[in-house]
């Protein structure tokens, strides 16, 4: 008799994520192979944003699922490097996926910001800061590095909104907006496999940090299509001119810190879920960063759902490395020791996978971060693939 195997297929989509999980799902004497697709996207700018990668990925997904619909699509969070692909495949490539159920992160619900005024205020502040940054860069295009441009495009709330609107309508059976503590019954067709939602919190306002003050020195744009211009402020009487202009320059440079804060806020709203199957535990954390990991760790300590008791949940056998191998993509040391200790408690092999691309973000992937993982488990990256290979597989025997 053939041994059932769960398979995680990690596609190389440059700087982005696309993961297909194939799960033997037993109900009584019958076992059905079910499939979960996570994300599909990459950044809008630079080498990391090549849209030619989407066609082979979507064609392979269609080949794997055959004539049945995809059982579950998961959107981890609202960033272009995670949401761009399905809209592009549908509208540009005419390759539509048939999907039964979908999970979108809680804040993607159409009425979400009506129900959560604190999150709405945080988002409004974020959008205002983003718009200021865009106006500044229109007035001084030479100020923007390639890396900053990729980050700005990846966080464009208007481009992302088009993709999220498309993803709200892809499921033929049910679209669910999930968060830690939500009810999962009826949101997917799985019978044997189980799920734990570790994050985000339903109210995402706690993931938004404070923005740095900016004084960008912009004149108002006059007339349709007019570009704003930089102005040169004059020091107030009695203020040292050198110190004043140093302050002006520092405030203008603050846009990069604020762009990073915007990026972090969206990453920390990522859907983090654990898949449980025949004793194996696999974690898919989107792009969760430190603020999200700290909240999860607190919920574990408090024994809040889906965690119970005084101890952390059983250790993991697999983790998708968050934020493409960034230094902030792993939990803090004490949490990592709990969920993936140095030695395997049950003697089973353990794995980490990295979907990333060089020269898109500073120091990503981070060698020290991957080194911490290699001390615990095998690490596989899309960077190790040959030029003519666009995915790798990790398998778990049932």
Strand content: 15-25%
Q: Alpha-carbon distance between the termini?
A: 12 Å
Helix/strand structural class: alpha/beta
Overall geometry comes to globular
Largest sheet: 7 strands, mixed
Would you report the number of β strands? 13
- Amount of helix: 25-40%
Oligomer: single chain
Q: Return residue spans where pLDDT drops below 50 for at least 5 consecutive residues.
A: none
Radius of gyration: 22 Å
Average per-residue pLDDT, rounded, comes to 89
Give the strand line-up of the largest sheet: 6-5-4-3-2-1-13
* Topology pattern, helix = H, strand = E: EEEHEHEHHHHEEHEEHEHEHEE
Number of helices: 10
What would your notes on this structure say?
- This protein is α/β, with parallel strands linked by helices and 398 residues long.
- The protein has 10 helices and 13 strands.
- It has helices at 54-65, 80-91, 112-115, 117-139, 146-154, 157-168, 241-267, 290-302, 333-339, 367-374; strands spanning 5-11, 18-27, 30-39, 70-75, 99-105, 171-178, 194-199, 272-277, 280-284, 318-320, 351-354, 378-381, 391-397.
- The strands form 2 sheets. A 7-stranded mixed β-sheet has the order 6-5-4-3-2-1-13. A 6-stranded mixed β-sheet has the order 7-8-9-10-11-12.
- α2 links the parallel β4 (70-75) and β5 (99-105).
- α4 crosses α7 and α5 (146-154) packs across α7 (241-267).
- The longest helix has 27 residues, at 241-267.
- The two termini are 12 Å apart.
- 40% of the residues are buried.
- The model has no long low-confidence stretch (mean pLDDT 89).
């Amino acid at each position: 008799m053939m041994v059932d195997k769960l398979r995680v297929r990690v596609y190389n989509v440059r700087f982005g994520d696309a993961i297909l999980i194939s799960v033997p799902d037993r109900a009584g004497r019958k076992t059905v192979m079910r499939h979960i697709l996570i994300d599909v996207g990459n950044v809008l700018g630079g080498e990391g944003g090549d849209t030619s990668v989407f066609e082979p990925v979507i064609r392979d997904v269609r080949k794997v699922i055959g004539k049945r619909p995809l059982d579950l699509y998961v959107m981890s969070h609202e960033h272009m490097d995670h949401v761009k692909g399905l809209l592009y495949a549908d509208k540009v490539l005419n390759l539509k996926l048939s999907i039964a159920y979908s999970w979108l992160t809680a804040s993607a619900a159409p009425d979400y910001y009506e129900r959560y005024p604190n999150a709405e205020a945080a988002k409004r502040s974020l959008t205002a800061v983003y718009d200021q940054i865009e106006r500044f860069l229109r007035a001084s295009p030479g100020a923007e590095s390639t890396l900053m441009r990729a980050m700005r495009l990846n966080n464009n709330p208007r481009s992302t909104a088009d993709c999220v609107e498309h993803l709200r309508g892809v499921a033929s059976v049910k679209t669910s907006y999930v968060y830690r503590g939500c009810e999962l019954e009826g949101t997917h067709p799985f019978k044997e496999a189980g799920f734990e939602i570790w994050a985000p919190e339903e109210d995402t306002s706690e993931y938004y940090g404070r923005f740095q003050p900016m004084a960008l020195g912009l004149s108002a744009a006059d007339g349709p299509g007019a570009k704003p211009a930089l102005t040169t402020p004059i020091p107030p009487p009695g203020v040292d001119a050198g110190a004043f202009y140093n302050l002006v320059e520092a405030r203008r440079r603050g846009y990069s810190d604020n762009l990073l804060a915007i990026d972090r806020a969206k990453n920390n709203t990522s859907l983090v879920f654990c898949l449980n199957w025949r004793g194996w535990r696999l974690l898919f954390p989107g792009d969760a960063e430190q603020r999200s990991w700290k909240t999860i760790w607190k919920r574990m300590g408090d024994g809040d759902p889906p965690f119970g008791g005084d101890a952390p949940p059983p250790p993991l056998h697999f983790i998708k490395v968050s934020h493409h191998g960034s230094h902030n993509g792993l939990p803090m040391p004490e949490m990592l020791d709990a969920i993936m200790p140095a030695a395997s408690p049950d003697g089973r092999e353990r794995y980490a996978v990295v979907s990333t691309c060089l020269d898109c973000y500073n120091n990503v992937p981070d060698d020290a971060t991957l080194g911490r993982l290699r001390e615990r488990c095998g690490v596989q990256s899309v960077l190790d693939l040959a030029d003519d290979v666009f995915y790798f597989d990790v398998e778990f025997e049932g």
